[in-house]
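Show me any protein, fold above all:
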Amino acid sequence: MDGKHRKTLQAIFEKPERSNLTWRSIEALFIALGADITEGRGSRVRVAFKNIRAVFHRPHPQKEANQATVKSVRRFLEAAGVKP
């Protein structure tokens, strides 16, 4: 995991939740951690990591994830034992 991924991870765990994180940087973090990402129907993205599974909706037409998505990503990472 490089410095950019670490910054993204720290931003995910900030409170209040940020609304300026790009979905691309969140997906890049998942890949750097070793998660399996598969495309679902429409804008759905399935993520599996350490026997924890989640489905997220890729934001569109904007590039940034909203606060609720960031909160869901944080809960997913906490369940998988990932912390900044």
Notes: The two ends are 11 Å apart (CA to CA). The chain has a mean pLDDT of 93. The first helix runs from residue 3 to 12. Strands lie at 36-39, 44-49, 52-57.
